[in-house]
Amino acid sequence: MKRERRLLVPVVLTLAAVFLLVAPFGFKPYGIFILSMWAVMTIAAIGLNLTLGYAGQVSLAQAAFVGIGAYVTAYLTTKGWPFWTTYLFGGAACFAIGWLLGYPALRVQHHYLAFVTLAFNTLIYLIFRNEEWLTGGIYGISNVPRPSVLGWSMNGPREFYYFCLAHLALISLAAWWLIRSPWGRAFVAVRENPMRALSLGVDTRRYTLMAFALGAGLGGVSGALYAPLVQFVDPTPFALGLSLNLLLMVVVGGSGYFFGPFLGAMVAVLLPEWLRFTEGFYLMGYALLVIVLMVFCPSGLIGLADRLFKPAARKAAETAAVQSEAAR
Amino acid sequence: MSTVLAVRDLKKSFGGIVAVDGVSFDVGEGEILGIIGPNGSGKSTLFNCILGQLAPSGGDVRLDGRKVTGMRPCDLNRLGVSRTFQLLQVFPQLTVRDNLILAGQEHKGTMLSRLIGRRDAGLSAPADRMLAFFRLGHLADVEAGGLSYGQQKLLDAAMAFMAGPRLALLDEPAGGVNLTMLASLRDRLKAINAEQGATFVVIEHNMEFVMALCHRILVLAEGRIIAQGDPAQVRRDPKVIEAYLGH
What we know:
A: two-stranded antiparallel ribbon; B: 247 residues; Rossmann fold; 10 strands
């Protein structure tokens, strides 16, 4: 039984990887586009999961960072800059702005912080919409080119899908490394008990700022892929709605769990498409599903899986603790 | 015996209420100093002012002669000053071993080495030694939230010693701990004091525990020191009896 459980995660991961690799051959271009969008949104959600799920800092500004990354890439690539420069530039700009946005988080927490970040998102949205000389206003920036890798063009939907998937894979590995490093431990400490963390030498100020900056940087990277994926940017997608949607992805998937954002982005990006057969009812069905999930499993889909597959492990730990107490 | 901690004329008031009213004392190297006093006498506030969690209204705090008043708790901790809180504070969602590694990791390397270096910052073995020392070895991989109250209290104390502090300030380490575990905790603390030469300041209500552990005791009432001396002297002091029993 124990061995079966240990095998479960690698088996599920392998199946998921195989599915993601062969999927484009079974889908029409629109399906491939949606799957690419899932990969891009997962990257932004991984970022928000670092900030919110691990370090416990509420942010309703993730859409602003996706937007900044997208606009930087769109603006510079249409001006003839090479994609990789704009990609790094967009990510770095978001990292720096995210660091600055972290400062309010040192003073305010929870719903107050939510409002600070919400205001920031609105501010950025207004800049996108009103600063026409830079952003093209409501007409946005069109004909964003897709990059090529070592002379191999990523123009086709399938090629660009693999391009996004490769980014997702690399970023997932980096995030996996980060949360298992002492940084990940310090993030959790800042989330669970900042005062105790501080008394153990954890520089909570530096880690909080880092959590914001890294989350924002991944938002920027996600945007840098969004622009060439859609090949058009305008202000509307980066309004508060997307920030709430990204928050939904993190919470529905399982906030503070590594695989949470992957599932959450599936629910938020793919599920509405799969429910389209219900026509006018699909959004209602979707909303209902989310409500039911949140009521019965507030720790999200990963938390649900945890409850289904790990009750035995938890019970064993509790028994060990009780027994050792009794032995005294 | 050189002075590790020197507190001079420390004051803290909240609005009109004076919680700490001009407290001065020294703690020598290797000493175990107890601080007792009735509830509300300013013991925990005194700790919080010494440790930078609260900004004192006046006076200063020196560590090895160096002024550390108002320094951030994390910087002070990295200078070798650790603490426990009155209410139990472990990280319930981290395993017992990870709680200890966290307590030591910020003392090793740089931000960069903590990112790209080893996951346990090379602290697994020291953490396991510390767990064995506090007799928690069998619980290393359990989430701290799953431990009993007494076990969490031991873990809390173990975390304070993980980085090998020169000075540890313990706020009611015996609170809520059962009798058998209390004896074990006292032995552990005495052993750390003897083996590592660590200096302790201990706030405690459990008189038996304080008298058996401490070399010297300070008695606080209404924010002032009303008596000090070795355990036997303090026990006989009429001012102490009055402060505890009332008029």
